[in-house]
Here is the input.
Amino acid sequence: MASSSDRRDDGPTPLALARARLAVASGKQKLDLIFSAPDPRAFVRGLPAEDLYFAVREVGLADAADVVGLASPAQFRAFVDLDAWSHDRLDGARVLAWLRLAREGAPTPAEFRLLRLGLDLDLLVLVLKTQTSIHALEEEPDPVLTSDNWVRSAEGKYLIEITATGDDGATARQLIEDFIDENPFEATRLFEAVRWELESELEESCLRWRQGRVRDLGFPALEEALAIWRPLPDGWRPREVAPDAGRVSGVPALLLAGRTRALFLDRVAEELPDEARGAFNEGLVYLLNCALVADGIDPKDLDLARSSLAAARDTLSLGLELSSGGEPGRALAVLVSTPPVELFRVAVTRLLDVQREADRAARPLLFGSGAQVALDTPDAETLAGLRRKRLRLFEGADWRPLRDRADLDRAVETIARARQAAAVLAGIGIDPARASELAEQAGRAPTAISASQLALTAAVRTTLELTALGPLTAEDLKEVGRLFDGEKLSGSARAGLERFFDERAPAATPVTREWVARLEAELGPPLARGGLDARFVEVILVAPGSYP
Here is the structure.
């Protein structure tokens, strides 16, 4: 978080505006912005460490050495904390990579030394323990080496074989030589620690300190982060009194990470008065950090982080729209008075209701293994997305979070269609077990058939006065032509099909009318051209023996 100096009563400070510009700049434009500042060093050191870290990662480490060299020791330590850990395991090579960048970018060796001294000594011991092999020459006068990259301690007591290769090996050697040059006696003690300290104890100690610092950056503990996914208590209402002003002005970098489209939230946030923006931005950063922790994403996984942050913003926008009824003036008042976490949980509460409704609607339509919902595209994919741990809507070739009330309406409509389809099957007398039998008769896996195929097959057989329930045979297909007049269903056939559905599931008329239209569209043209080829019939089930 930024300090209180990043906020003034008369509006955003120049630093706050610079943060906003840095957030929206893309790629290497961030470098131009930093080095065009009157004092790049002061500009860099005035940024919150996490803002600067995400900027460096977006620029690319290979091009960001000069920026890293301008960072303060505390910022540099934050870079390592955020980037060199995978959950509870330290990646020594990542620490060496950051040290290499700092050495390349620091204006003087003395400033690099300050950056290095900002790291925990136990962490450097742990890095050397994983990247070197220490040989005690008193015990092993002529050690067998597997690498030609080695350094002898000043007093000749140890030979430090560097097992890291390439740039990492060169950086590890420079680190060891720095320790020896600065204080040979302390370097010997360091090498003894590398040799004798237990790796597990070192890692536990380093992790404990790292977790504390990461929490100070605004990343909460897991249990606290997961609280954003709990529904709100009954009777919750938006707050009436605005909270105290926060410490962050301008636009936080995380707010804009992964932005792809304007949300209801964005339009309302643009109207926030300056005196309310600090509290909102502080709450927003906290919410987004909670989302990363709850999703188990390390900040260094930038693409995953962007996706998680964008999803959290989408859900927050939905919560704001729901709590305000979608009325911009009311939404602005809610955004001023109510913490983003609570607005996020407004959406979570509604989405959990949708998820439960989707599960109940899907249950009668889970054939075979139960993994595939027996609906047609896109309803099948949409319903599957609504049953995921994190609800998603199917769009194009992928799923995305629900963003607004229109998305909720689409979800509710899909659930209603699923219930209608289930009602039709129940009216016909087809349960999941019977559906599996019919799939086997058609030579298909239970997960490869849909409710519409089952229902239309039964409707066609009844309209043709065929008694047995099952796939159509080659002889049955010859009779299907009697239902058509050219490419269109005859009036009597259409009436018969609609009557079949209305008698068994009168409330399902919207979806059954669509099914009848699909039957006409698929079978009408080939029948008008001379007949059906069973190999290309999908809208109804055909017995395997009907194929040529």
Remarks:
- The beta strands are 85-86, 89-90, 132-136, 150-152, 158-162, 393-395, 398-400, 484-485, 488-489.
- The chain has 26 helices and nine strands.
